[in-house]
Design a protein that fits this description.
Layout: E1 2-11, E2 16-24, E3 27-33, E4 45-48, E5 53-54, E6 58-60, E7 68-69, E8 72-73, H1 78-87, E9 90-97, H2 105-115, E10 122-127, H3 136-146, E11 150-154, H4 165-177, E12 181-185, H5 189-201, H6 209-212, H7 216-222
Parallel strand pairs: 1-4, 1-5, 6-9, 9-10, 10-11, 11-12
Antiparallel strand pairs: 1-2, 2-3, 7-8
Length: 223
């Protein structure tokens, strides 16, 4: 099946122009300049995008869907969250696979893939190592065989999912050695907990106190 979207304003990474777009079997085939008045003969459906933009789908590399927290599951599962993302023009999402104490990274990834089966969008996952241990390199290699090449480290939340700087450095070297990519939640975990607890003890619990408990220098020091 081929679809031709005509009369739209096409936006690419190089230019903005009045053009049409031919999609064949779910993939972009080519775009047609507005100066070319001929409609492609190989299309089975024509959509008129007059007054509209034709833009690439967005990628959201940080979502939390169907995730267990201390107060229960997050508000959206993969289906409702992916539908909401799609309605906003996002076509790819990335969530997280965080192993429990009894899970390996590949086990956590497979569990999240099962939970994500009802996503209406393309998705991927960041694997989140819980620490540095002898089996970790093999688990990283197995994760990459599954197709997961991104690994997330948290330097805050040290009482739950966070890790300290020394462990982070070990994991970064291990992931790099095996050709993966690391992203880091960079904050000084202990200092932020101290600030937050102090504000709470003094009764400063309004939303405006939240950023005050996480000042910019906490991120800068962590980086």
């Amino acid at each position: 099946m081929a679809v031709f979207i005509k009369n739209g304003t096409l936006i690419t990474d190089e230019k903005i122009e009045k053009a049409g777009l031919l999609i064949s079997n779910g993939k972009i085939d080519r775009w047609v300049s507005a100066f070319d008045s001929d409609t492609p003969t190989d299309c089975t459906q024509i959509m008129d995008a007059q007054g509209m933009y034709i833009i690439p789908g967005g990628s959201d590399p940080h979502v939390h869907l169907q995730m267990e927290t201390q107060v229960g599951l997050t508000g959206d599962d993969f289906r409702s969250g992916s539908i909401a993302a799609m309605m906003g023009g996002t076509t790819t999402i990335m969530d997280f696979a965080s192993p429990t104490a009894k899970q390996t990274l590949p086990d956590a990834i497979h569990q999240r893939m099962h939970e994500a089966e009802n996503s209406v969008l393309d998705y991927s996952l960041h694997a989140r190592p819980s620490g540095f241990y002898p089996e970790l390199e093999k688990e990283i290699q197995d994760a990459m065989q599954i197709g997961i090449k991104s690994f997330k480290l948290n330097l805050a939340y040290l009482e739950t999912i966070g890790i300290n700087d020394t462990v982070a450095g070990q994991i970064i070297q291990l992931v790099g050695k095996n050709g993966g990519m690391v992203s880091v939640h960079a904050e000084q975990g202990n200092e932020i907990e101290r600030l937050r607890n102090n504000y709470f003890a003094d009764g400063f619990i309004e939303p405006r106190n939240h950023p005050l408990s996480r000042p910019p220098q906490m991120e800068a020091k962590s980086v």
